[in-house]
Design a protein that fits this description.
The chain is of the alpha/beta class and about 190 residues long. About 40% of the residues lie in helices and about 15% in strands.
Length: about 190
């Protein structure tokens, strides 16, 4: 049985920074719909930190701005063969659930993955807000994490470069992400 192609759907994450695991997720989500809305969480990391205060919202875990992440995601998806007319980035402030429908209507299906307990919590939250959620795949752990990438960048290692798309490599160097991470408190 083949999956029905949705007219449009959303997939979301912090993408701090965008890595190959994120790309796998976004490309699988795009395979399931004609138009993909890429929702970016922690749009305002300072406000998110005040609202939730978990490790996910700490400054070291969110070194890239919303704008910088949009540029990286756009470049990586185009490099992967998507047309600019097939996707768009949009704020997805899941840290402020009461505002989420101002950015992504509840009628828009959410496509996600499960790799950690936060994903299960997020699914319950989205469903409680009226969103339809489809799990694309489930894994017992993440093969690549933004935390690992940030640690490698901060340490001045180059091993991270094979774990991210070329658009991320270029942005990390251009934006001096290593210098940024060295100044941010963990």
């Amino acid at each position: 049985m083949t999956q029905a192609i949705l007219p449009e759907a959303s997939a979301h994450g912090r993408f701090q920074p965008l890595h190959n695991g994120h790309m796998e997720y976004l490309l699988e989500a795009k395979r399931r719909c004609r138009f993909l809305w890429v929702g970016i969480t922690a749009v305002d990391p300072i406000a998110a930190q005040r609202a939730r205060g978990t490790a996910r919202e700490q400054p070291w875990n969110n070194p890239l701005s919303y704008f910088e992440r949009v540029v990286i995601i756009r470049g990586a998806l185009i490099d992967a063969g998507l047309l600019p007319s097939e996707f768009a980035c949009v704020p997805f402030p899941i840290e402020f659930p009461e505002t989420l429908s101002n950015y992504v209507p509840t009628a828009l299906p959410c496509l996600t993955t499960i790799c950690e307990e936060w994903n299960r919590q997020k699914i319950r939250l989205l469903e409680s807000l009226g969103y339809s959620v489809t799990v694309l795949y489930e894994r017992s752990s993440k093969e690549i994490s933004g935390h690992q990438i940030r640690e490698s960048v901060q340490a001045g290692l180059n091993s991270w470069e094979t774990k991210v798309p070329p658009a991320t490599v270029e942005a990390v160097k251009l934006l001096n992400l290593r210098g940024r991470l060295l100044t941010l408190k963990r």
